[in-house]
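Incident review: delayed structure delivery

Summary: a single-chain prediction request sat in the queue longer than the usual turnaround. Root cause was a stuck worker, restarted by the on-call engineer. No data loss occurred. The affected request and its eventual output are reproduced below so the record is complete for anyone auditing the incident later.

Affected input:
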Amino acid sequence: MRIIHQILTFIDSINIWVSRIISPLILAAAIIIIYEVFMRVAFNSPTMWVHELSQMLFGAFFMLAGGYVLYLDKHVRVDILISRLSIRMNAIISIVTSVLFFSYVGSLLYYGFDRAWHAFLRGEYSDTPWGPIVWPVLFMIPLGALLILLQGFAKLIRNFVAAVTGKEA
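Output delivered after worker restart:
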């Protein structure tokens, strides 16, 4: 049981660490959007790069924060029935439905990596006037999926413990 606890703590710490590193991305996106608004209103001089860069920053943040959100158990869900069930029954339902979770996140990892890898090999650029390279941002998709997948395995292990013991792990 001790090794399981160490594995769960390790996975949790990865997502906590990543969330601390990426949290400034939201501040960076806000600053460049404020800059854009200021340039547009004060000087009638809009930029062509702020919109795309803010989308890239938010997209990276969104993908990389997914594992941390799963760690906190804060993903959106409808839990009208789940909230009324026992810990054991809730865990059993989570174990059964985890097949859907792992199928989706596994597909996101596989196809996201395939898309990012091909963009890297082609040296793909955005087709906007600014035209930044896109493969670094595209690699956030499989990386984020991997973080979510790891946290999903940790959640699955915790659900197995809860299903057997009736107590949260």
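Verification: Residues 42 and 144 are 38 Å apart (CA to CA).
Action items: add queue-age alerting; document worker restart procedure.
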